[in-house]
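Subject: Re: docking follow-up (fe (ii) ion)

Dear J.,

Thanks for your patience while I sorted out the input files. As discussed at Tuesday's group meeting, I've set up the holo structure prediction with fe (ii) ion included as the bound ligand rather than trying to dock it afterwards. The sequence and the ligand SMILES I used are pasted below, so you can double-check that they match what you have on your end before we go further.
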Amino acid sequence: MALITWNNNYSVNIKEIDSQHKKLVELVNELYDNMKIGKGKEVTGKILNDLVKYTESHFSYEEELFKKFKYIEGVKHSQEHAQLLSKVKSFVKDFDSGKGSVSVDLLNFLKDWLVGHIGNSDKKYSQFLNSKGVS
Ligand SMILES: [Fe+2]
Ligand SMILES: [Fe+2]
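The structure tokens for the complex came back this morning:
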């Protein structure tokens, strides 16, 4: 079973962003599956690396929209992104420098982040961006 199952409650009503979020969910599920079957460090490291890169580009995508349309909560939201990213990076650093396994803490953090950040902060911009013609 997947760690996170996408459902329409997670939708922010913007097609491109939903598809980016789905990709993030996919990567986290892949990481989880890998942990369960105990795949090697190399494979896991590659997924983690992809996750960081994809997260960076996803956050930039959102932040560009905030700037473009002068979203009032954009600064606060971007700060949240920076915190999430630095936390993910510090988990990856631990992984690289040591045990070579993905901790339950990391998976829980990723799950809470995706479900929590999308469900709260991301959903807040839906109406605003929709009203600017982004859908
Ligand atoms: Fe997002
Ligand atoms: Fe966000």
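A couple of observations from a first look. The pocket of fe (ii) ion (ligand 1) is lined by residues 21, 58, 62, 118, 122 (CB under 6 Å). The CA atoms of residues 3 and 125 lie 26 Å apart.

Let me know if you'd like me to rerun anything.

Best regards,
T.
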